[in-house]
Amino acid sequence: MVFLTRRATFSASHYYWNPGWGAEKNEQVFGRCANRNGHGHNYTLEVTVAGEPDAVTGFVVDLKWLKAVMEREVLDAYDHRHLNLEVLEFLATETRATIPTTENIAIAVWKRLERAITEAGGARLTCVRIYETPEIFAEYRGEA
Amino acid sequence: MLSASHRLHAEGLTEEENRAAYGKCNNPHGHGHNYVVEVVVGGPVDAETGMVINLVALDEAVRSRVMERFDHTNLNFDALFAKQVPTTENLCRAVFGLLRDALPAGKLEYVRVEETENNFFECYET
Q1: pTM of the model as a whole
Q2: Domains: count for chain A
């Protein structure tokens, strides 16, 4: 079994705000991240797939294909966007929101990639890792 | 780090199929990478030495089995790649096999090979 990881970067803005809470609680829980004018990060995305290298090509998957899938499914939607305001899975209602924390971004990216990778056959998605800064990352490995 | 060249070309495919499958990597003259190899061993900490493994012995195994064999070489000419394409998947698996055989049984957990800063491969026992 070989695990193959491809990196990509994207830049996006966001803020943390739970619409079910008042301003005071949001500011208490989220601190500087609750600033409604938003702030931004350079995110690094690492996508890991696993499988046996193909007997003819020696590939687990074609890296060019994986890059294209990551660009189409994730970067086209996230790069140079405001996650709260422009990305479907983080759009808030009046009472609730999936807050674009690094944790939730990892889960959202998994959901965006899983179908395309599974449908292609040959390899399975095993890990999505998102770095928000070089010091912080979240990993999602699907529901065990 | 080991610096080596390779060309991705499968004998079972036509010229056209090879170009379609491997793109730039199918260039007849090959191309090179600085591969970064990470070797991870695991096991109980020995009560007398305080070590999982003797790092000098680990370094020696990596030097003699991997670096001397592959560094500043063309991977396509290595016997291990006579019948398989030297993709980094297969290089990673080859390095794993060479080190597994050189290290005390059960110590080698996995091998990671970074081909570029944007992709890397990990091989575990299967």
Answers
A1: 0.84
A2: 1
Active site residue B31: no
Looking at chain B, the number of H-run helices and the number of E-run strands are 4, 5
| Nearest residue to A131 via CA among A16, A11, A29 | A11
- Which of B33, B76, B89 should be substituted to probe chain A, the one whose Cβ sees the most A Cβ atoms within 10 Å? B89
Kindly tell me the burial class for residue B80, based on how many C-beta atoms sit within 10 Å of its own C-beta (0-12, 13-18, 19 or more). Answer: middle
What class does CATH assign to B2-124?
A: alpha beta
CATH of the domain at A103: 3.30.479.10
CB contacts, 8 Å: B114 with chain A:
none
Residue A47: closest CA among chain B residues belongs to which residue? Answer: B119
Determine the structural domain holding residue A49 and report its residue range: 2-140
Model ipTM? 0.72
How do residues B100-124 score in pLDDT, each as one tens digit?
999 999 999 999 999 999 999 999 9
The domains of chain B are located at 2-124
- Work out the minimum CA distance from A23 to partner chain B, whole angstroms: 41
